[in-house]
């Protein structure tokens, strides 16, 4: 922040260290990893180095940092994740840390669909079968992509558990905005895998300074609807 913006810096610091710290996620590692996913979704690359250092200071491994970004890919797209990873890798190298993560894949080209569909059903219930069957013929390949890629390629990976992956997914969707139906679905999914409404609200609060009030309020509405 430049010298002439000291007033803005003071407002930001007061808000982050005051109300956000008091009401957001308390676990430092969870807070940092969720922040990484949020910043990647927003494509605010300049903020990533600081968040990487925060994650490392909280005890997060290189693999945990990378997996937090990988998990956002089905929701924000490959290009944004690649840009975020480039910034993360550069930061790791500058701090003297090898940016090579450990391979966390648990599927093969032959099993990714089957295992992904199993995760979908575990999270959303057997309604997934009805959704697949009711899809128009010309879009059924998208349902296959969801099962094999979104869930098979990502949700089955190691290091991060299902609760953390769903929390990252929810925050990424809320951060990009305009996807409230999907945000509601994943708010419910978070509840189904064991995250509490309190955790979701704390995660939204943690990301409020990055995503702004309109998207944060929309996210809160999705949580409230999921709890009905």
List the helices and strands and how they pair.
Layout (H helix, E strand, L loop, with lengths): L5 H18 L4 H15 L5 H10 L4 H9 L2 H4 L1 H17 L17 H13 L2 H8 L5 H16 L6 H15 L3 H13 L4 H15 L1 H14 L2
| Poorly predicted runs | none
Query: What structural category characterises the helix and strand content?
Result: mainly alpha
* Annotation field: number of helices: 13
Instruction: Indicate the mean pLDDT.
Output: 96
Q: Could you state the oligomeric state of the chains shown?
A: single chain
Order of SSEs: HHHHHHHHHHHHH
Helix proportion: over 70%
Question: Strand portion, in percent?
Answer: under 5%
Largest sheet: none
Query: What Rg do the Cα atoms give?
Result: 18 Å
Distance between the termini: 43 Å
Q: Per the principal axes of the C-alpha atoms, what is the gross shape?
A: globular
Give the beta-strand count.
0
Overview of this structure, please?
This protein is mostly helical and 228 residues long. It is 73% helix and 0% strand. It has 13 helices and no strands. The protein has helices at 6-23, 28-42, 48-57, 62-70, 73-76, 78-94, 112-124, 127-134, 140-155, 162-176, 180-192, 197-211, 213-226. The longest helix has 18 residues, at 6-23. The protein starts with 5 loop residues before the first helix and ends with a helix. The mean pLDDT is 96.
């Amino acid at each position: 922040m430049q010298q002439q913006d000291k007033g803005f810096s003071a407002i930001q610091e007061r808000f982050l260290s005051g109300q956000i710290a008091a009401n957001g996620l308390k676990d430092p590692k969870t807070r940092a990893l969720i922040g990484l996913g949020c910043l990647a979704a927003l494509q605010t690359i300049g903020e990533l180095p600081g968040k990487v250092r925060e994650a490392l200071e909280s005890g997060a491994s290189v693999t945990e940092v990378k997996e937090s970004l990988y998990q956002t890919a089905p929701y924000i797209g490959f290009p944004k994740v690649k840009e975020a990873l480039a910034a993360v890798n550069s930061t790791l190298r500058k701090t003297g840390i090898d940016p090579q993560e450990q391979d966390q894949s648990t599927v093969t080209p032959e099993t990714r669909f089957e295992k992904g569909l199993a995760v979908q059903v575990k999270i959303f219930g057997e309604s997934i079968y009805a959704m697949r069957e009711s899809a128009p013929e010309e879009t059924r390949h998208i349902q296959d992509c969801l099962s094999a890629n979104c869930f098979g390629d990502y949700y089955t990976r190691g290091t991060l558990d299902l609760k953390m992956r769903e929390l990252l997914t929810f925050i990424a969707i809320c951060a990009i905005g305009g996807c409230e139906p999907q945000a509601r679905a994943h708010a419910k999914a978070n509840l189904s895998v064991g995250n509490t409404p309190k955790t979701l609200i704390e995660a939204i609060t943690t990301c409020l300074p990055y995503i702004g009030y309109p998207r944060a309020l929309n996210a809160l509405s999705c949580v409230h609807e999921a709890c009905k």
